[in-house]
Amino acid sequence: MKAAWASVAAAALASACCLGPVLLAGIGAGALGAAAVRLEPLRPAFLAVTAVLLAFAFHGAYRHTGTCEADGRCRTSSRPGARFVVWVVAALVGLLVAFPYYVGFLP
Q: How does pLDDT run across 16-33, given as a tens digit for each residue?
C-alpha cells in the first residue's frame, strides 16, 4: 500500500509543473506558480518513478502466496480492499499524469 500512495506523490510531482501554476494562480499567488514551471525538465523522471511505484503496488496487491491448489489455481495474498485501493490510486495517477493535456479545457 505504501507503493501505491508513493506513486500518487510521484505523479503529483510530475504534474507540479502544470498543476502548481494553475492552483497557485487560483488563490492569487501567480508568482509562486511561475516558479513551479522549473520542474518541467524533471517530469519524465517523475513519470518513470510513478510507473515503477505503481507496478510495485500492483505486484503487492496481486502477488501469489506460493500455495497452489491441485487444479493449478494459486491464491493471491491480498484482500479485495487492497486491490480496490490500488485501482483507485491508479485512476488518480492517471488524472494527475494527464493534467497537462486537459488543463486547457477546464473553465
A: 666 666 666 666 666 666
